Amino acid sequence: MVLKFVQENSTWGYDRIQGALANGGYHITDTTVGNILKANGIEPAPDRQRSMSWSAFLKAHWDVIAAIDFTTVEVWTKGGLTTFYLLFAMELNTRRVHFVGCATNPKQAWMKQATRELTACGDGFLNGRRFVIMDRDTTFCESFRSLLEDAGVEPVRLPPRSPNLNAYIERFLGSLRSESLDRMILFGENALRNAVREFLPHYHAERNHQGLANELIEPREFTGATEGEIQTRERLGGLLKYYHRSAA
């Protein structure tokens, strides 16, 4: 029980653990608690807080963390095959995703404008978020990070070559590519933007997510209905399908 308590509550000290044990009928001294922790190589609370694990950090700040990342797509344009950079942001607790925009060369001015839109009063996607996770891509320049900080959002830069630490948005980007973009030949920026616009409502309201107990992010009024004919909604020429009951 001592190990369970300290693993689930990284800030608890010896006395707090002793008290929690007493609530369950286990009466031992705080010295015994300390000895158990030392025997298992677990540091006292102050040291544990300084070395909080990444998973513990995410759980402790779940409701106020966002993630941001790019993916690239090859698009046929008048100038030939062109690489577009697509920027997305995600609320980790809801998995809701926002398409920030796309550009062939997202320089500093483009990134600064993206930050202003993300943190705009009233409808900015990052409103209410305290942290935003990002990798060390040089596109996330100093001015971009400074504007986030000015809006009260702290950039959390990940160590080099650590995509698993930003796994939630990486998983979304993988789904976007494998389920739509990689299965299409895109002609022009408008076709690319349309594909993204079609995928996002499917992702939010028509695609079940294993990480959310196989539920929809934004279920509709008739989701789960047991009456009515089963119908199919198709997007992107049938690449994306959603099966639902017709409204009564």
Overview of this protein structure:
This protein is α/β, with parallel strands linked by helices. Among the domains are: 2-52, no CATH class; 62-168, Ribonuclease H-like superfamily/Ribonuclease H (Nucleotidyltransferase, domain 5). It is built from nine helices and seven strands, in the order αααααβββαβαβααββ. The strands form two sheets. It has a five-stranded mixed β-sheet, with helices on both faces. A two-stranded antiparallel ribbon has the order 6-7. Strand 4, helix 7 and strand 5 (154-157) form a beta-alpha-beta unit. Helix 2 (14-23) packs across helix 3 and helix 6 packs parallel to helix 7 (142-150). The radius of gyration is 23 Å and the shape is globular. The mean pLDDT is 90.
